[in-house]
Amino acid sequence: MTSAPTQPMYGRIMGSGPGIAAPARLLLAFLLLLGIWSGLGFSPLLAAPLQDQQIITVPQNKSRILDLRDPIARVSVANPAIADILVINPKQLYLNGKELGTTNMTLWDDKDAVQRQIGLEVTHDLETLKEKIYRTLPGERIRVESVKGAVVLSG
User: Fold this and answer.
1) Element (H or E) spanning 9, and its range?
2) Rounded Cα gap, residues 97 and 99, in angstroms
3) In the predicted model, is pLDDT for residue 145 greater than 50?
């Protein structure tokens, strides 16, 4: 008795006739699901990941104007205890450092699409501190940094 040749299980997904190989069907199914997924607003592989493109530093109890390259319609800050943000016009933001720490802000356009996320770090007012140290100790090479809520002097 002779046995009929068998096809490998991975050769076909549906039916026994000619068709698309299993890896190609799996890829097609994956891409179709991704299309549906992205239509629901979840597009981790089709769109650039929403990562902070940059980190803006604002001294505590001081403000900074941020000029944007593209117009935005609204903005949100993750932790309003750390920073206040005000939209001055579609291409300009007013940032106010309230408490030491880090947070981020998300910017949307007029079609409610997220344009970018920007990291915010509120630090000590290092420029004023540096000015006082350099005035008191002229000629000394002292480095002033803000690290995790503390001022670090080195040199």
Assistant:
1) none
2) 6
3) yes
